[in-house]
Automatic annotation (TrEMBL):
PROSITE patterns: GLYCOSYL_HYDROL_F35 (PS01182). It comes from Eisenbergiella porci. Residues 524-582 form the Beta-galactosidase galactose-binding domain. This is Beta-galactosidase. Coiled coil: none annotated. GO terms for molecular function: beta-galactosidase activity. Residues 334-356 are annotated as: Disordered. One of its GO terms (biological process) is carbohydrate metabolic process. Keywords: Glycosidase, Hydrolase. Pfam families: BetaGal_ABD_1, BetaGal_gal-bd, Glyco_hydro_35. Its EC number is 3.2.1.23.
Length: 606
């Protein structure tokens, strides 16, 4: 265990306590893994041959509302206790690289930026716009004092911090980068600072400033990447901060992405010969809740709940063939001849009650039948108070960050409904007229003129359920992506419908549900399941026969499901279960339901 103060320097090489040091690191995101599993994952990282662990720090989790900071995470099972994660790494003899940039990408909602930033006009994110910097400064005023005592020169394990993430592919505002650097230094950060970018001249030159060391992110072409990087390191070492050994999945992909292990192994050999490496990812973990990100090319591609990433450990922490191959390469490179430690692979972890729990034992609990159900419209007043406005407002302007928003209005002057068109709307809409489902559309389809045929003799009630499928985490769209309806609803080619009641549905208060309220077939609805557990273990929730929605286990938001795939089952960590009766609540939006769900012993990522 590292307890004495030390030094970490960047010269021609990295130097740890005055001696040359090669970083062999792996990425584990503490906010994607339950705390009960941290020790297991970190032990496996060290056993593979790594000496360092790397993690991002997501701003949007630690400041979910402006001025409300959370560095423990009571509502997310303690996953935000960054200090405990770092101390756990230290106890196991691992060094730590932190990436607390305001923006992290990471296939995480909004690249880690808080959604409440989008409610504040035309502020230019990731720039020296003082309106943005003042928010970063307030966040760093709380974060950096937690991290400073954990640095190596204070007796901690932290050896480097990142200033910004892949900024070279986004912009060239060096005043912004200098401001971040100065904030960190002003809050007591003394270890080396670094940036990471793609291995291109334009990207690396965009982020080149004094006092920030350049590194590169890539998955292949090591020799070429390092030859470019060397032009910017001023004689310093080369490091691949993100060695991409897999990839992420998006809903409606044809299948789960798998990397080429032979190519990755060859690249690893070269990386270890030429420089330093951080595996992205050692273990990917899970996009619990609504925290998955999205990408946008020609259309929106929202990431699935699993962040398995075809990493060295599976989503539930199982050792892979790739792990063993990399372990052999690292061992040969370091000349230690270490073999996999099977005692680590089967080790038990201690629960809070002191009782040992082998949560990682994959377990099948069988079929669970629906015990209670209530549709959204019958339960609406249990979950939300309406907010009345003349024109519809985006989710962010309503003070909501994630989930669904229901927009309701009455068409007093229309007796026939011919068409609907939504302007500045995102991401997915389900429209109902007098309780009848008339339209489902997403992304660019929302702008299209959708023909509807409905004739009534009285006022028409229009309900539009908008789903935020995950904010774009990479690219220029990061500044322009409010969710819900931020423009207008065009009815029968008239410019705008006015007079709206809006219901914010972040799905964080389902304990208020009253399952006796009523249930109409075909409506978005909540379904309750109860099942008994004798020995909690990891399991996989199969939602075959269900359409689209999200799942809650004993009050914890497990994530999204969608029959579109490729992911077919959600990882349910055993640490979320308890002896005795357990509860699952499933929200389904398409009106497509079955009589049961299954808890199985194997994943199915597609």
């Amino acid at each position: 265990m590292m307890t004495n103060t030390g030094t970490f320097e960047i010269r021609d090489k990295f130097y740890l306590n005055g001696k040359p040091f090669q970083i062999i690191s792996g990425g584990i995101h503490y906010f994607r893994v339950l705390p009960e599993y941290w020790e297991d994952r970190l032990r496996k990282l060290k056993e593979m041959g790594c000496n360092t662990v790397e993690t991002y720090i997501p701003w949007n989790m630690h400041e979910p509302e402006k001025g409300r900071f959370d560095f423990y995470g009571e509502k997310v099972h303690g996953m935000l206790d960054i200090v405990s994660f770092i101390r756990k790494a230290q106890q196991l003899g691992l060094w730590v690289i932190l990436r607390p940039s305001p923006y992290i990408c990471a296939e995480w909602d909004f690249g880690g930026l808080p959604a409440w930033l989008l409610a504040q006009g035309d502020m230019a994110l990731r720039t020296s716009d003082e309106r943005f910097l003042c928010h970063v400064r307030a966040y760093y005023d709380r974060l950096m004092p937690l991290l400073a005592p954990l640095q190596i020169d204070h007796g901690g394990p932290v050896i480097m911090l990142q200033v910004e993430n892949e900024y070279g592919s986004f912009g060239n505002d060096k005043k912004y980068l200098e401001s971040l650097r100065d904030m960190m230094r002003g809050q007591g950060i003394t270890v080396p600072l670094f940036a990471s970018d793609g291995p291109g001249h334009n990207m690396l030159s965009n982020t080149r400033i004094d006092g920030v060391f350049p590194t590169a992110n890539f998955g292949s072409g090591t020799k070429r990447a390092f030859s470019i990087l060397e032009e910017y390191t001023d004689g310093g070492p080369c490091m691949c901060t993100e060695f991409w050994i897999g990839w992420f999945d998006a809903w409606r992909d044809e299948k789960h992405h798998k990397g080429n292990m032979e190519i990755a192994a060859k690249e690893l050999e070269e990386l270890l010969e030429l420089g330093n490496v951080n595996f992205y990812m050692f273990e990917g973990g899970t996009n619990f809740g609504f925290m998955n990100g999205s990408n946008y090319g020609d259309h929106l591609t929202a990431d699935v709940t699993s962040y398995d990433y075809d990493a060295l450990l599976t989503e539930d922490g199982q050792i892979t063939e790739k792990y063993r191959r990399f372990q052999e390469i690292i061992s040969r490179h370091r000349g230690k001849g270490a073999e996999p430690d099977e005692s680590i692979a089967g080790s038990k972890l201690s629960g809070e009650d002191g009782e040992e729990k082998n949560f990682r034992e994959r377990t099948a609990y069988g079929t669970c039948n629906v015990s209670q159900k209530v549709d959204l419209f019958h339960a609406l007043d249990c979950l939300a108070e309406p907010v009345g406005t003349l024109s519809p407002m985006s989710m962010e302007r309503l003070g909501q960050s994630y989930g669904y928003t229901l927009y309701s209005s009455v068409l007093h002057t229309e007796r026939q409904l011919h068409s609907i068109r939504l302007y500045q709307a995102a991401d997915r809409a389900i429209c109902f007229a007098d309780g009848k489902r008339i339209l489902t559309a997403m992304d660019r389809e929302l702008l299209e003129r959708h023909e509807v045929e409905l004739t009534v003799s009285q006022d028409i009630r229009l309900d539009i359920l908008m789903e935020n499928m995950g904010r774009v985490n990479y690219g220029p769209m990061i500044n322009w992506q409010r969710k819900g309806i931020d423009g207008c609803v065009m009815i029968n080619d008239c410019f705008a419908q006015h007079g709206w009641q809006q219901y914010c549905l972040p799905m964080d208060n389902l304990e208020k549900l009253d399952f006796t309220r009523g249930y109409d077939e075909g409506m978005p609805a909540f379904y309750r399941f109860a099942f008994t557990v004798e020995a909690p273990g990891d399991t996989f929730l199969d939602c075959s026969g269900w359409g689209k929605g999200c799942v809650f286990v004993n009050g914890f938001h497990l994530g999204r499901f969608w029959e579109a795939g490729p992911q077919k089952r959600l990882y349910l960590p055993g640490a979320l279960l308890k002896k005795g009766e357990n509860e699952i609540i499933l929200f389904e939006s398409e009106g497509k339901c079955a009589d049961s769900i299954s808890l199985l012993a194997e994943p199915d990522l597609g």
